[in-house]
Design goal:
The protein has 20 helices and 17 strands. With about 525 residues, the chain is of the alpha/beta class. The protein is globular, with a radius of gyration of 24 Å.
Length: about 525
């Protein structure tokens, strides 16, 4: 048995059964092992940032890591942006990167790179296997690291001779430590704050945003008068009927500062205190009041649901019904607007859908108008590196077993960073409906330009414009094997959305806005 074969056997024994891949020469023995050993679903991505983004989306839905297959340091470099997003989402990924043979590295061949050095900033665990006998044991540790709460990127660098040399040993799965419990004194302190103080915010992130966590937080808020908010960018939020009408911390600095100004105490549950996405002249980086006291109920690696349950018990908080959000809306009509599209999605999404949201500036107000939708999960861009919406949608569809419709709300500019995702959706026949928000400009950057006090002239505006020539999304999608159509009204968009969710496979709607 060679090292690559021991790797595949160990991954499968450790519960990793999906590989998102873009292989190269150094990984051919790994590819051969994947071919020879049954049990691993291999999904090809045509660019590495698609591969890493799919692995992120997969974890968000499956709750377990997939592995990647990337080609040497440059292949890793191509996938770094979505590994950055995955790190911010706290997604578990076994990130396998091929490398030059150990004896070949001193010759400084063209692909030789500091692969470990590039991996460290986006990884919680990094190791290079230097011999075939080590590969299986290293892989078992990598899976354990990726699965350790709340989830992290574990990068295993695999020199080609460690793959092809005989002497591989299959390793047994390693126990994964349970998420840490919150300190009882911390729970008692949070209860004291909630009983005795006014203007208290409970800020939810991570696993606290799943259905059970929100229900517990709702009980606590109803019993104490505290308010609930979600972090501004979240890996996965349970939303729709049966869940609280939870809003997010706003993105725009002035709006966030105003929204948070009233709170004198902030209790963090798998969250961090709100700060700006960027710095702006004469505006604070912290968006909450400088006089507010911040209390940590659970850190990211701790069990938020258990802590919220203990806090509810400490407070004696009774069960609290979650109010009905009202009737499901009618689809929007007329010219496309953010409000109209939100109503259309809320009106027409199927039960238990998944929304992958990289709508950027167009979609900032979608939340209030989609509370009346059926129960669904909402996935967001967590790290700010654009180009994750379509790969995350693709990986989420696979992570959900192909049984749930994914609606990908996608800005046109960021879509071009990982447009190859459409090809994988077509190849895998995935139930993904992509709505391209086609304004043919980097609209968010136009707003950011104004936000720093600049007055854009023709050169600047030309750099923020995606016209001349216009992107033809119907032809792009068709060229990737995905059916597509253009809509210029909300009625047309709604008709196409309804048709797409009732059929198998992917579909793309170019909504001209």
């Amino acid at each position: 048995m060679n090292g690559a074969q021991s790797l595949v056997h160990t991954l499968l024994k450790s519960g990793v059964d999906t590989c998102f891949a873009n292989p190269g020469t150094s990984e051919m023995h790994f590819v051969a092992a994947l071919d020879q050993i049954p049990g691993m679903r291999c999904v090809l991505g045509l660019q590495e940032n698609v591969v890493t983004g799919m692995a992120d989306g997969y974890f968000r839905l499956a709750g377990k890591p997939a592995c990647t297959l990337l080609h040497c340091g440059p292949g890793l470099a191509n996938g770094l942006a979505n590994l950055h997003n995955a790190r911010r989402a706290r997604s578990g990924i076994v990130n396998i990167v091929g490398d030059q043979a150990t004896y070949h590295r001193p010759f400084d061949a063209p692909l030789t790179a500091d692969t470990e050095g590039w991996a460290r900033p986006v990884s919680g665990w990094v190791r290079t296997s230097t011999a075939s006998a080590e590969v299986g044991a290293d892989a078992a540790v990598a899976v354990q690291a990726a699965r350790t709460a709340p989830g992290q990127v574990a990068t295993l660098v695999l020199p080609s001779d460690a793959s092809w040399d005989e002497g591989g040993v299959v390793a047994e799965p390693l126990a994964v430590p349970a998420a840490q419990a919150a300190d009882p004194s911390v729970i008692r302190n949070a209860a004291r704050v909630l009983r005795e103080k006014k203007n208290v915010l409970i800020l939810l992130g991570g696993m606290a945003l799943r259905e059970n966590g929100q229900a517990l937080a709702w009980r606590i808020a109803q019993a104490t008068g505290a308010k609930l908010l979600a972090e501004g960018s979240n890996a996965r939020v349970s939303r729709g009927r049966g869940r609280p009408q939870l809003e997010r911390v706003p993105y725009v600095a002035d709006v966030a500062i105003k929204a948070l100004a009233e709170f004198e105490h902030i209790i963090l549950v798998n969250a961090k205190a709100p700060v700006g996405f960027f710095a702006y002249p004469d505006k604070p980086s912290r968006h909450y009041s400088p006089d507010a006291q911040v209390h940590v109920l659970t850190r990211f690696e701790q069990n938020a649901e258990a802590a919220l349950a203990a806090l509810a018990d400490e407070l004696g908080a009774p069960q609290a019904a979650i109010p009905d959000p009202g009737p499901r809306p009618q689809p929007g009509r007329g010219a496309p607007t953010p409000e109209g599209l939100a109503l259309t999605v809320a009106a027409l999404m199927p039960e238990n859908a998944i929304v992958s949201d990289e709508s950027v500036s167009f979609g900032r107000g979608f939340y209030p108008l989609t509370h009346t939708a059926p129960a669904h999960d909402w996935l967001q861009l967590t790290g700010g590196a654009i180009g994750d919406g379509m790969p995350v949608a693709t990986g989420a569809a696979i992570g959900a077993g192909g049984q749930r419709r994914v609606i990908s709300l996608q800005a046109d500019g960021s879509a071009m960073y990982s447009v190859q995702s459409l090809w994988t959706q077509a190849r895998e026949k995935l139930p993904v409906t992509t709505i391209i928000l086609s304004n043919r400009k980097y609209q968010i950057l136009i707003g950011e330009y104004a936000g720093v006090g600049a007055n854009p002239g023709p050169t600047a505006m030309n750099m923020l414009d995606l016209g001349n020539p216009d992107l033809d999304w119907v032809k792009i999608a068709n060229g990737m094997g995905v059916e597509a159509a253009q809509a210029t009204t909300l009625e047309a968009c709604g008709d196409l959305l309804s048709q797409s969710v009732s059929r198998n496979g992917p579909f793309l709607i170019e909504l001209v806005i």
